[in-house]
Amino acid sequence: MVSTYPVKVQPSGNQYLSPSQDSTNIYPNQQLLPLTARVNRDDFLEIGGCDVTKLVQQFGSPLYILDETTLRIACQQYRDTFKKYYKGESQVLYASKAWNCLAVCAIVASEGLGIDVVSGGELYTALEAGVSPEKIYLHGNNKSRDELTLAIESGCTIVVDNWYELHTLVELATTNTAIRIMLRLTPGIECHTHEYIRTGHLDSKFGFDPNDLEEVFAFASKEPALNCVGVHAHIGSQIFELQPHRDLAAVMVQWLRDAAKYNLELTELNVGGGLGIKYTESDDPPSIEEWSKAICEVVQEACAAENLPLPKLLCEPGRSLIATACITAYTIGSAKTIPDIRTYVTIDGGMSDNPRPITYQSVYRAVVANKMSAPLTETVTVAGKHCESGDILIKNAPLPKTEPGDVLVVMATGAYNYSMASNYNRLPRPAAVLVANGEANLILQRETYQDIIRQDCLPERLK
Ligand code: LLP
After folding, report:
1. Does 184 share its domain with 303?
2. What pLDDT is attached to residue 174?
3. Which of 229, 325, 362, 457 is most buried (CB neighbours < 10 A)?
4. Does residue 289 line the site of ligand 1, with CB under 6 A?
5. Ligand 1, from 99, 141, 198, 237: best to mutate by most atoms within 8 Å of Cβ?
6. Ligand 1 centre from 81 Cα, in Å?
């Protein structure tokens, strides 16, 4: 049987795509394409009212195309469902390691979200984007003194990971104002995800060991240089089950209770991120609303049981906020058919703009932007252009018959693609455009060969 792309038919077109965006229960993390994806009369894919093939003509390829509407809707859904299900104060932070750049920080902040940063570079970007320092939280298991100083001077909250950092902060505290911190603890919760992106189990490099809990609380409660406001934990990423997050929320409320024994009044509880997204038709993650509801309910129930006041509840999703909002458009070039084995179709990017398949064996789906209703008659392997056999973006991709010049779109590339991109083989990193209402604005320039050698130094004697 000849199939076509597994997306829903639009009145204007003849293809898959997510349902109409004005429907309130459409969650970006459960879709394959951005919410504004449409097929136009020419059978071409449009995102944010822009024809993807025309964007490639204008901006070149590979090209990250970020749909502002999808990103904003995901922000609003997180923000509004926390407000809906939680009776106390709440604050959603965007885990900007998923994609940190000025435009993304500015959009997310304009929706009322705060930002989680994990390095001086991410912190600097968030500050330059105009994000208010009260809404910035600095993470990291080995923050440098410079990074800590930048955080202290700018007035953001530091999520302290270990004893060394706790002592360093006491040393760095110079003013009369105590440094605002939270404590990151390892909750000892297992979840089913790739071992590289699991962080909540006991054998994790992140956070204080739970056996040290009382000692850490005792230290923080006596240290006038530190204003310890709460606890933080994160169990992992791309998680499809709600139970580990429910367990986490319950464990964390116990920590609030334990802290009270040391007269440490903790008013903030941050449950981290981790909600999964749909990369393929078979992925079935819970919705943003189901996740938020589960967490809010457990925190409320556990606080009621312990007779504790409701803390300010924070979470910090990355992937589920931004992944689906972005696609990567490539131009197809050479192909190689090995009879009875496979056909390789090569694109003009690869592991340097999307290192996830080679790093985590992540599976992606693709469509051909200029052949949206053509029957999917081929099964091909989409190869990148890097000098590395493992540089394969998609194995066994069902595609229509392709030819050089076709525009291949890989879906759900908003998270951990640009942010993990490299210059391997000295490929310039791609440009990114923000699309909305038929307009496209550059948010990241394409690197040039001059950029590629910008940091190179040629000692005089080699000239
Ligand atoms: N908070 C903390 C402390 C984290 O370590 C992370 C992710 C998040 C929040 C956001 O998690 P998310 O909602 O995005 O699942 N590069 C990997 C993912 C690494 C995740 C690292 N920490 C990947 O491409 O799958």
Report:
1. yes
2. 79
3. 325
4. no
5. 237
6. 21
* Spatial separation of the C-alpha atoms in residues 406 and 409, rounded to whole Å: 10
Question: Is the domain of 341 the same as that of 431?
Answer: yes
Say how many domains are in the chain. Answer: 2
The verdict on 143 and 266 lying in the same domain is: yes
Ligand 1 atom nearest residue 276's Cα: 15
Q: Which of 135, 248, 242 is nearest to 200 (CA)?
A: 248
Which tens digit of pLDDT belongs to each residue from 111-151?
999 999 999 999 999 999 999 999 999 999 999 999 999 99
The H or E element that residue 444 is part of is strand 439-444
How far apart are the C-alpha atoms of 158 and 175, rounded to whole Å? 16
8 domain residue, yes or no:
no
CB–CB of 261/306 below 8 Å? no
**Measured from the CB, is residue 417 less than 6 Å from ligand 1?**
no
pLDDT, tens only, 89-115: 999 999 999 999 999 999 999 999 999
Q: What is the pLDDT of residue 5?
A: 54
Element of type H or E holding 166: helix 163-172
pLDDT score for 14: 32
Q: What is the pTM of this model?
A: 0.95
Which phi and psi (to 5°) does residue 230 adopt? 180, -170
Domain range enclosing 282: 69-322
206 lines ligand 1 (CB under 6 A): no
Q: Is 387 a catalytic residue?
A: yes
Ligand 1 close to Cβ of residue 300 (< 6 A): no
362 shares a domain with 240: no
Query: Of 301, 322, 343, which marks where a domain is finished?
Result: 322
In this structure, what CATH number is given to the domain that contains residue 429?
Answer: 2.40.37.10
Q: What is the mean pLDDT of the chain?
A: 93
What pairs with residue 95 in β-bridges?
A: 116
**Which of 289, 322, 355 is a domain's end point?**
322
